[in-house]
Amino acid sequence: MTRPSDITRERILNAAERLFAERGYDGTSIRAIVAKARVNQAAINYHFDGKDGLYRDVLRGAFRALTEDQLAHAEETKAISREEALHEFVRRQLRPLVARDEVSRALRIFNWETVRPTAVFRKLMSEEAAPFMELAVALLRRFLPKADQRTLVVAALGLMGQCSVFVRNREQLAGPPIGLALDETSIDWLAGVITRLTIAGLAQPA
Amino acid sequence: MTRPSDITRERILNAAERLFAERGYDGTSIRAIVAKARVNQAAINYHFDGKDGLYRDVLRGAFRALTEDQLAHAEETKAISREEALHEFVRRQLRPLVARDEVSRALRIFNWETVRPTAVFRKLMSEEAAPFMELAVALLRRFLPKADQRTLVVAALGLMGQCSVFVRNREQLAGPPIGLALDETSIDWLAGVITRLTIAGLAQPA
DNA sequence: TGGTTTTTCAAACACGGGTTTGAAAATCGA
DNA sequence: TCGATTTTCAAACCCGTGTTTGAAAAACCA
Hints:
Two copies of one chain form a homodimer. By secondary structure, the first copy, chain A, is mainly alpha-helical. Chain A has helices spanning 4-27, 30-37, 42-48, 51-77, 82-93, 102-113, 119-128, 130-141, 149-168, 170-174, 184-203. Chain A binds a DNA duplex through residues 3-5, 8, 29-31, 39-47, 50-51.
């Protein structure tokens, strides 16, 4: 049932997803996408009704991939201790540092959006972000059962911010003056440091 | 000794600094700057040798303002407890949320750079960022005297990441689905939450 | 003051961005 | 197969960007 035109569509989506993850919305040009996808420039307007429409579809795919991944994760966490669950959560947040799969690209795209949120993104976010936040908040609630919602939200955001700073600045951190090279072997170490600091921080909130 | 042309220079620098802080390098056009500064468009090339040159000068000013501020802060911290010093550090990181002074604008500009660092910025950073990092690391060393440098760097970066996520996403967080409005009164509360979580986290790193 | 230098100005330039066009090619359905 | 529809394609279009130009105005200084 895959019509020939669907192949073009798929090639564009694939190339666009990778480029958006790598360079963000503004940093990715129509011409770069069609060059990578090896299709004609007008195809984007024909199939997606413009750059915005293409981005919306890429974003939808990213949301879908991430939601599936998170839901699978949520199932796992019910069976393990809160400490292990937190460690796993952090590891997943740091995953774009080493992995190149779809979920990592989705996280990268969302990282771009934290700076200059697109109108397209804001709309999708306000509709579909709640489940993510709920997962993180639920995880932290296992450590702080008596904390109010606002505090938990702040703690969750802080935790994600802690992780994303390493994902966003990986290249910068590797060079001088920091010199923090993050290869595959050090990811576990990094996740461990963040997790331990966080666990201890949650253990006794004055 | 202020020649008339220096007035033009100053007006451009002033307008550019505010616009760069608000919209970042790519988001700020020459035409927007000259409109705000009420000078001719060619003046930027005449006085600063192009947009890059102007940005370099703005960045230098931002570094200078921030360094002075941090050094003043460093003096204070020697006299107070490590807990108070940490709280003050966090408060300063969150300052752009409420303040509109030069230091806050400098922090905002640096926040933009965390995503797509300009070549101009990278060069300045590699030369002048070390002192900042040292200050934060020194602060955390008071909590973790036995930790190695790498762990301290990670902890410092994580702490700054925790703060910057609120500064960067302030508008997004205020709306649905998060609904975390950060007005002047809640900054102290936010700084308190982050500080307490961090202190406890540093208190007993497993 | 008068000649020189510095600074301003409006206009145009070259470039890359997303989009549109209209015809050719390919595909589809009867 | 053949007419209708869908899809591709190269080229152009329009707009906003940073920069350059050359002359007019202003400021400077002997």
